[in-house]
Amino acid sequence: MNLPIANSTVSIVKCESIHDSHRVKKSLEKALDLIGGIETFICRGDTVIVKPNLIKPAHYKTGTITNPFLVEAACRIVKEKGAKKVIVADGAAVGYDTEKAFDEAGLREITKKIDVELFDFKKAERIGVPVPYGRVLHRIKLPRVFLEADIVINIPVMKTHDVFPATLGIKNIKGVIREEDKKRFHKWGLSRAIVDLNKVAFPDLTIVDGTVGMEGLGPTHGEPVNLGVIVVSRDVVAADTVASTIMGIDPSEIEYIKLAEKEGLGCADLSRIEVVGERLENLIRPFKRVKLDFKKYEDKGIFIHERGACSGCRHNMESIITSLEKKGELEYLKGFHIVFGQLSKMPERVRGKLVFIGLCTREYKNKGYYIPGCPPHPEDIMNELKKIK
Ligand code: SF4
Description:
13 helices, binds iron/sulfur cluster
């Protein structure tokens, strides 16, 4: 891993033959040539980690995980440039088996065919490293294999998310940490923790996989978007900025992108990013987002008191309600008054169960039930709500 770079060039290339490894490789080569060529940062004899998004066992056509043909293309390209060792590595989300995710993605066969290793970060030997200028993270245990790599290639998928408007490259790096730290990140402030992590786990190259993205209830329950594009940059912040714009999401709405730029990790200002290849304007395809009018649930006896919440808490609440509604289980929330947001106040004349969600409401924690976190994880919120029942 190298230090964050000043070059904020982002290439966008169409990649429409998404099930054909040869053609996916051609598209990736074109995207890399547009940013100066992979030979500008890979040296003969390097060890390279390729980090896809394998959040859970799933098929890439669902948009849940990185397209394995894109992973194969990245591996083949670095091998052709003389990389000594190439390792495809990830750690699935809390509660999911990474090995099963490798199987379902088809990566077991692909990596065998091209003589590349597979590695589950959940089984990694770890080394504690200090986080320079960490805001909430001062030390973190990272996989030895990750720290010892010369080059890290980050391949997130273009997806909507339950905590942020979108999950992209900066967020994808979270896959390297331990399960217990993944949970702690929510307590410490997810955006800040992710940005601190990127200070010690900064990727050398980010390839945003928009071959099949995901909209709606991402990152795992949404619908696939057959977009057929890839976005490539050495600057992960710039890659995320361009990718979110393609998704019709203003990058300034995504806390971790804003913070990452503020902390000097890259450029989030579109006017200062050099976009090469396809014209960005021609590819914008707004991704469906869960945007709820909380008022309409009052008829059902569910009262959401939100004031000034950032995207983390708002998205959590929206995805919890939408997924309960989809499963016909909205009854769970009947009789609840749920309070969250930075400007939240104690609601007046409440009859029912009063629940305060997130760090911003902690001053009221003795007035009802309190669920800590910034934002709390949607699963933790749901588990706590069920207990209150
Ligand atoms: S707890 Fe407050 S600061 Fe944290 S995500 Fe929720 S609204 Fe934002």
